[in-house]
Design a protein that fits this description.
Helix content: over 70%
Largest sheet: 2 strands, antiparallel
Number of helices: 15
CATH class: Mainly Alpha
Number of domains: 1
Number of strands: 2
Length: 406
């Protein structure tokens, strides 16, 4: 089951991650500006945010397996549309479709983990699934860029659509029905009833803390992350051909660290593990936003440590938030949480772009100020993590034996 969820997470993360290194080729082919390319990225993000909110009204009314299969089918179809897009407008519309499905899909994956895996093993399970980012970075992005450079940008999306079809078949055969969260629900609700229920879920103090926590965590990351590549080219001295190495080494490192941090979160507590990882990330954020022109090896060391630190704090954070919700409302809450994350990350990029400037020699200015914003948000997250209460659910897991059966 975890391998199936890992495959689903890998494909939809690869779809998002590969857009950034494809930027130069798309800008050249479509003859668009950097601002128009930024809109192409944000179209996905804001679509994911909107559908995350809307899906919270109905996601807990369905078997988790059925919902995942339906959403993943839509994601695969959207990816195929990206590969067949005839121009900039068509590709933007296709990205809106993909973002709409992925905004719910990512939340549902972690809701399934929360339902099926006992709390004492949930950190490790989260680490396994979140290693999808590492796999996407190490294998997906370099292979996708190679295909795009050799056969054109469309080919990368078409091959991803084929991989989606394979994963969908795997999910159909591997995932068991998951209906335990439906047992506590009564008769079918009207949309107004669903909105009232959703408001009750979101307005719970513990849930508000979790939403604020994850939103700040996105701000602490996405003020810095979208501008690493241009900063390292303009200020640090890397060439555009060196950029895939950032994904490769960072992803390779987190393949090992994701599961390690997940196990530590189960052993020492999710909030405590997050606090340690977050404090460590402050040092790396300062380093990466103030790095001068350095040799390639040193630049890659800094970016690799940055990726490890970002991933190291995200694994216990996601496990902590998933453990803060009752199983019968976890799908709705995780959808809202995903929407908050998408909107916060989109807003973070906009705010950071307003802070940044460009010097006469073409170098980027004020990136260090963006780093201070990220550091401040990180420290606020450490304080908020202590206020999130874990919901005890020794009887709430769908079936702990799922991971033990041959």
């Amino acid at each position: 089951m975890l391998l199936t969820l890992l495959a689903a997470q890998f494909t939809h993360l690869l779809d998002f991650v590969i857009m950034m290194p494809l930027g130069p080729q798309l800008m050249r082919v479509f003859e668009i500006s950097a601002q128009e390319f930024g809109f192409l990225i944000s179209a996905y993000t804001f679509s994911a945010g909107v559908t995350g909110f809307l899906s919270a009204l109905w996601i807990d009314r369905f078997d988790r397996r059925s919902a995942l299969l339906a959403l993943y089918s839509g994601f695969g179809a959207g990816t195929l549309l990206c590969g067949l897009a005839s121009g900039y407008v068509a590709l933007t519309l296709a990205r809106i479709v993909v973002g709409g499905f992925c905004g719910v899909l990512g939340a549902l994956v972690f809701a399934i983990i929360g339902d099926a895996i006992p709390e004492e093993r949930r950190g490790a399970a989260t680490g396994v699934v979140m290693s999808a980012f590492a796999l996407a970075s190490v294998a997906g992005v370099p292979i996708g860029l190679w295909l795009a450079n050799r056969f054109g940008w469309r080919f990368a999306f078409l091959m991803l659509a084929v991989l989606c079809a394979t994963t969908l078949a795997l999910a159909y055969n591997a995932l068991p029905p998951m209906r335990a969260h439906l047992q506590a629900q009564t008769a079918r609700q009207t949309p107004l009833d669903a909105m009232r229920k959703l408001f009750a879920v979101v307005s719970t103090p513990n849930h508000l803390n979790a939403l604020a926590f994850m939103s700040l965590l996105m701000i602490a990351g996405f003020t810095v992350i979208p501008y690493i590549s241009p900063y390292f080219v303009a200020n640090v001295g890397l060439s555009e051909g060196d950029l895939p190495l950032i994904y490769f080494f960072g992803g390779a490192a987190t393949i090992f660290t994701s599961r390690l941090v997940g196990g530590l979160a189960d052993r020492f507590g999710k909030a405590r593990t997050f606090a340690i990882a977050a404090i460590a990330s402050v040092i790396v954020i300062y380093a990466i936003t103030n790095l001068p022109r350095v040799p390639l090896a040193l630049a890659l060391l800094v970016t690799t440590l940055f990726t490890i630190a970002m991933n190291g704090r995200l694994v216990p954070a996601v496990a902590l938030v998933a453990s803060s919700v009752d199983p019968k409302t976890r799908g709705s809450f995780m959808s809202v949480n995903s929407a908050f994350q998408q909107l916060a990350s989109g807003a973070s990029s906009v705010v950071a772009g307003m802070i940044l400037g460009k010097a006469a020699d073409g170098s980027m200015t004020n990136y260090h100020l963006v780093g201070f914003v990220a550091i401040g948000a990180t420290l606020l997250c450490v304080a908020l993590a202590k206020r999130i209460r874990v919901v005890e659910e020794s009887k709430g897991a769908e079936s702990p034996a799922l991971l033990e059966e041959p």
